[in-house]
């Protein structure tokens, strides 16, 4: 029986190669989508950009951990990030020391993306992931390269399946010296492609006993930041990997059993980045609409409770604006909630969805005054794709597509949400630009 060969067992195994023709078109498309995203972000002020960055960082931390089977409280992560970036956070939730440590690693990586990588930095980051020295109840080596063999396995005890055997511990130091030297070198290669290579290369060495996946994604993000020349990250690959982990692990396994041709890996990575950038556009739209709302509403007198609750809904909280939901969010009486809502309705901040409804719901007015956008858009439709809902329309001859909340789509379809309110919520930023 012929012994199965792993990629690192081949001579000059890191001389990766790929089919340029298969990669070039995707690379161009990623670059175009990046340009569009950053073009939209240029319309945001610094504070709004910081808010979008914080939301992306929250998703990155949560989903990168979830890929490894570690579930973090998103509100705790968001609070930790907000405190470190010095921005307001609607729902303050005290983060654990562990979450603070993980967030510190992510922010350190992004703020110092242009600094050389070192063994000491990697070891410090890895130790932050395992402050107790344990992983899943077992003691592991922390803050240093592994000294044990590393087998990637799945299945029950006695029926395990070996997916990959990493380089022997005796090789790790030398392999990592080569990796860090390449990471810090200047190469005439797209930072996007280098990001893909860095991810694959690092997890194939598997230098630590645990935490390699999260570190690989951080290192890939650093190269994307170098390409953008910005510490602000507005999209992340972790959320997309988390949606289809089986596909990720299958491609990784095939590549690690291959001969150094990493075309399939590169194509998968670029396609995943494309989806991540499109996902980021939905977050940016939310931030843009929120920014435009407060531009016109800044001079309207409101209580702190009203501002806090409006921000909750402006950030995409999936619930109707009703007196009951308002009271629940604020732990106040229903009478207090009704007074808050009626005050905002009088000031033109809120408007009823169905005027004579027995239990009315309300929509936020994003413009300086309630306006009718239906005459400005044509070919309006709502479509479902992969369990997500999208509002499609044409504005001044240009197609528009925005992801919307399932609740809003269902309300609209039941005639409980007027089309104009739907357009105002998701497309007002286009008109006001």
Shape: elongated
**Which regions contain 5 or more consecutive residues with pLDDT less than 50?**
none
Q: What's the architecture of the largest domain in CATH terms?
A: Orthogonal Bundle
The rounded distance between the terminal residues' Cα atoms is: 67 Å
What is the CATH C level class of the largest domain, in words? Answer: Mainly Alpha
Class of secondary structure makeup: mainly alpha
Q: Tally of extended strands?
A: 9
**Average predicted confidence as pLDDT:** 88
Strand content: 5-15%
Number of domains: 2
Radius of gyration: 24 Å
> Into which percent range does the helicity of residues fall?
40-55%
> What is the tally of helical segments?
16
What is the fourth-level CATH superfamily of the largest domain? Answer: Fido-like domain
As laid out across the biggest beta sheet, the strand order is 7-8-9
Order of helices and strands: HHHHHEEEEHHHHHHHHHEEEEEHH
The biggest beta sheet reads:
3 strands, antiparallel
CATH topology of the largest domain: Fic-like fold
Structure explained in plain terms:
Helix content is 55%, strand content 10%. It has 433 residues and is mainly α. It has two domains: 7-287, Fido-like domain (Fic-like fold); 300-432, Arc Repressor Mutant, subunit A, CATH 1.10.10. The model has no long low-confidence stretch (mean pLDDT 88).
Brief write-up:
With 433 residues, this protein is mainly alpha-helical.
Topology:
Blueprint (H helix, E strand, L loop, with lengths): L19 H22 L4 H22 L6 H12 L11 H15 L7 H11 L4 E2 L2 E2 L11 E4 L6 E5 L3 H16 L6 H15 L6 H17 L9 H6 L1 H12 L6 H35 L6 H11 L8 H8 L3 H13 L3 E3 L9 E3 L12 E9 L2 E8 L2 E7 L1 H8 L5 H14 L1
Antiparallel strand pairs: 1-2, 3-4, 5-6, 7-8, 8-9
Helix pairs in contact: 1-11, 2-3, 2-11, 3-4, 6-7, 7-8, 7-11, 11-16, 13-14
């Amino acid at each position: 029986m012929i012994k199965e060969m792993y990629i690192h067992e081949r001579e000059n195994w890191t001389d990766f190669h790929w089919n340029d023709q298969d990669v070039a078109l995707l690379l161009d498309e990623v670059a175009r989508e990046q340009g569009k995203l950053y073009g939209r972000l240029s319309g945001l002020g610094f504070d709004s950009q910081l808010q979008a960055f914080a939301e992306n960082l929250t998703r990155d931390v949560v989903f990168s951990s979830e890929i490894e089977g570690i579930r973090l409280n998103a509100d705790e992560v968001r609070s930790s990030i907000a405190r470190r970036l010095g921005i307001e956070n609607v729902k303050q939730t005290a983060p654990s020391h562990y979450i603070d440590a993980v967030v510190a690693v992510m922010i350190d990586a992004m703020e110092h993306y242009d600094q050389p990588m070192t063994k000491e930095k990697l070891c410090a980051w890895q130790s932050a992931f395992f402050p107790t020295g344990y992983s899943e109840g077992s003691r592991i080596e922390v803050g240093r390269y592994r000294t044990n063999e590393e087998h990637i396995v799945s299945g029950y005890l006695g029926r395990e399946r070996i997916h990959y055997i990493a380089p022997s511990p005796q090789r790790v130091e030398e392999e990592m010296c080569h990796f860090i030297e390449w990471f810090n070198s200047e190469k005439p290669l797209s930072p996007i492609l280098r990001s893909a290579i860095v991810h694959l290369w690092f997890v194939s060495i598997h230098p630590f006993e645990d935490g390699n996946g999260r570190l690989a994604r951080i290192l890939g993000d650093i190269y994307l930041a170098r390409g953008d020349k910005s510490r602000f990250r507005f999209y992340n690959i972790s959320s997309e990997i988390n949606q289809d982990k089986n596909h990720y692990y299958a491609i990784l396994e095939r590549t690690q059993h291959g001969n150094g041709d990493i075309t399939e890996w590169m194509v998968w990575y670029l396609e995943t980045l494309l989806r991540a950038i499109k996902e980021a556009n939905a977050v940016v739209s939310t931030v843009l609409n929120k920014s435009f709302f407060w531009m016109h509403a800044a001079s309207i007198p409101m209580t702190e409770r009203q501002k806090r609750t409006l921000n909750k809904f402006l950030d995409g909280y999936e619930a109707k604006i009703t007196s009951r939901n308002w009271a629940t969010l604020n732990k106040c009486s229903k009478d207090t909630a009704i007074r808050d809502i009626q005050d905002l309705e009088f000031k033109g901040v809120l408007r009823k969805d169905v005027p004579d409804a027995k239990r009315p719901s309300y929509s936020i007015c994003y413009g300086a005054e309630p306006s009718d956008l239906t005459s400005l858009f044509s070919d309006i439709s709502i479509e479902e794709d992969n369990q997500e809902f999208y509002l499609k329309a044409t504005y001044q001859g240009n197609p528009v597509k925005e992801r919307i909340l399932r609740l809003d789509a269902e309300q609209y379809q039941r005639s409980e949400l007027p089309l104009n309110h739907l357009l105002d919520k998701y497309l007002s930023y286009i008109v006001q630009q």
